[in-house]
Amino acid sequence: MNPVFKIILQRLALGLLTLLIVSFVIFTAVNLLPGDFAQAILGQSATPEAIASIRRDLGLDQPFFARYFVWLGDMLQGDLGVSYAQLNFQTNMGAAELKTVADQIAPRFANTMFLAGVTAAIAVPFAVGLGVLAALYRNSVFDKVANISTLTSISSPEFFLAYILVLFLAVLNPLLPSIANIYQGIPFTDRLIATLLPALTLTLVVTAHMMRMTRAAIINLLASPYIEMARLKGVKPLRIITHHALPNAWAPIINVIALNLAYLITGVVVVEVVFNYPGIGQLFVDAVKNRDIPVVQACCLIFAGAYILLNLAADILSILTNPRLRHPK
Amino acid sequence: MSVWLNIALALAVVAVLGWVFRFAGQKATGNNPYFRDMPYAVAFGFALAVVLILAGVWLYFQPAANEQGVPAPSVIFWRWAVHFVAGSAVAAFLFRLAGRHVGTGASRKLFRQMPLTAAFGILVVLIYAVLAIFAAFIAPHGQEQVFAQANVVPGGNPALGGNPEFPLGTDQIGRDILSRLIYGAQNTVGIAFATTVLAFLLGGTLGFLAAVLRGWTDQILSRGVDVLMAIPSLIFSLLLITVASAWVTGTGLTVAMVVIIAVIDSTRVYRLARAVGMNIVVMDYIEAAKLRGEGMGYLIFKEILPNATAPLLAEFGLRFCFVFLTISALSFLGLGIQPPLADWGTMVKDLSAFINYAAFAPQIASAPLLAAGAIALLTVAVNFVVDWMLHRSSGLKE
């Protein structure tokens, strides 16, 4: 078998194993909660029979491991359960239709993916371009200004950057909306405009790391003999970087891009709350505040899964872009 | 849409200016090599910088209010930003100058080699430390004290709805914002510092233990850390805080959050401590100590720890920034430091609606930005110092 294929299969298996263990950790953590949902909705004065019947309905009377495997099996089939808030509403108010967690998450997940996609589309070319320019004009005023401003933006909390952008782009100069109003069936351009301010905030957060890595990876290579050769035969500085240095620098750059996209997953939570963006991060924070366990579990698993997947992608891509690893002797 | 058109037009003018600048340089200096070989991008950069600086100066000297007395918020915010940057540069310069003339020989040498950014970082950290330690003496009012006047406008000008007694105004329920900002230094920074120390104690001890014992201990600890690191830290801490919030509330939840973040962050410290420890354990002097029959405690605290101080100290700075930002983010989400403790993240969340008033009353919008800026300033300062420390210890001159 092709050795690269083997390495990739190994990494994939490792990723799946990690995800399995992570799901167990999440399930265990949630089961540390005192009391259970049956008590929570019925209150102190509930009869033991009523509590027992709800527990039986929700499967809470099963032993720990049995519940874990039932939960895991449901998750794998896409059945994320029903949110406690919905159950509570139905039990006390008698609503007819139950919205499952999957129904709640699906549109929000799409919104979050859209936000992450727009961010990546802006941030990656911007950061790599800035990194190439900083490497080209290294130690110049431009390089120093880029260095200090990216260091500042990466050390600021997301909400500070968000409010600064709101201040300048939404309040003082009303160019973009400060509240991301996204509804069902919104036209694409409106959606893009509503997403732009959150996406710009996230861009500021992730650009610094990618730009610094691009710059460092290119400068590392500039001392190599083949770059010296290109310079001596009269190749222009920009062409040296784009045609000679960059192809060899892709591995670390791709790695850091994937890691930053993984970081987006965490950054997205705060930014969605700031802009009231109807994404999965906001749902997660609300569920945490209301202690809505099925939603918290599902969101956690989705975030962790995306995080593991992107780290895995970073691993595999850095193997694929490195010819030495692709063709081992 | 006209704004975008203006921006595009301005860029086109700058592009022409860049070409004119290079051409004029070539003609004026008789085709001097500097101008002859200048790439167009560099000429464009010069033109852009000059235009930006001129625009900045022009904006700075615009009137802060028009004839009718309506304030021009862009001008006011721009002036504040310029004053802040210029003031901090001067303060950092004076601080470095003072450091060069006061103190022992070693400290003076340190200050002579220090870049301005690092001097600024040290100055800011010192100011925060003083504020945090002496908050009770510096703050004009208590952090939980509620006054009769709520929503007093910052600025202390009675004509605009201010009150000289509350220079930065009061919040929605009438607490003095200035006092809460000062107490925020104590609470936010103090709690973040305690969390980082806890994370280092935990992660450092376990990491060194794994490095010394190897074998099964190392395997179990390392795989456990791998699993914990596979979950994004903010998400994991939110999950654990959900669990903790069922057991404890109020101040108890703050303590629980400290423990949770310390445990999650100790995994990163563990990785570093183990890696550094591994390199030290194979040294001859460790072998000698083992042959002398020294115990585990002696090995870790007297042999490994002194040799691992430098990388751990730099990591401490970065870790502190991370913990500080995480706690601020959690507080901003309403799940971190709990009231009645004053804290910057919560303040930003509570005051954030005031930003929308910036267009007609800039001073009202300053309150939430001050709280958020206080967080940003400290992390930027610590980063500047750590950057310089790493640069010094690695001997990189680049």
Give the helix/strand layout.
The complex is a heterodimer of chains A (329) and B (398).
Chain A: H1 3-30, H2 37-42, H3 48-58, H4 64-76, H5 84-93, H6 101-136, H7 141-155, H8 158-172, H9 188-221, H10 225-232, H11 237-275, H12 280-290, H13 293-320, H14 323-326
Chain B: H1 2-28, H2 33-36, H3 40-60, H4 73-101, H5 105-112, H6 116-133, H7 135-138, H8 177-213, H9 215-229, H10 233-247, H11 251-281, H12 284-292, H13 296-307, H14 309-332, H15 344-351, H16 362-394
Helix pairs in contact in B: 1-3, 4-5, 4-6, 6-8, 6-16, 8-9, 8-11, 8-13, 8-14, 9-11, 10-11, 11-14, 14-15, 14-16, 15-16
What does this entry look like structurally?
The complex is a heterodimer of chains A (329) and B (398). Chain A is mostly helical and 329 residues long. Chain A has a domain at 111-326: Orthogonal Bundle (MetI-like fold), CATH 1.10.3720.10. Chain A contains 14 helices and no strands. Chain A has helices at residues 3-30, 37-42, 48-58, 64-76, 84-93, 101-136, 141-155, 158-172, 188-221, 225-232, 237-275, 280-290, 293-320, 323-326. In chain A, α1 runs antiparallel to α13 (293-320). The longest helix of chain A has 39 residues, at 237-275. Chain A starts with a helix and ends with a helix. The relative contact order of chain A is 0.13. Chain B has 398 residues and is mostly helical. Among the domains of chain B are: 2-60; 177-394, MetI-like fold, CATH 1.10.3720. Helices cover 74% and strands 0% of the residues of chain B. Chain B has helices spanning 2-28, 33-36, 40-60, 73-101, 105-112, 116-133, 135-138, 177-213, 215-229, 233-247, 251-281, 284-292, 296-307, 309-332, 344-351, 362-394. In chain B, α1 packs across α3 (40-60), α4 (73-101) runs antiparallel to α5 and α4 (73-101) crosses α6. The longest helix of chain B is centred in the middle third of the chain and has 37 residues, at 177-213. The mean pLDDT of chain B is 84. At the A-B interface, α1, α7, α8, α11 and α12 of A face α3, α4, α9, α10 and α14 of B.
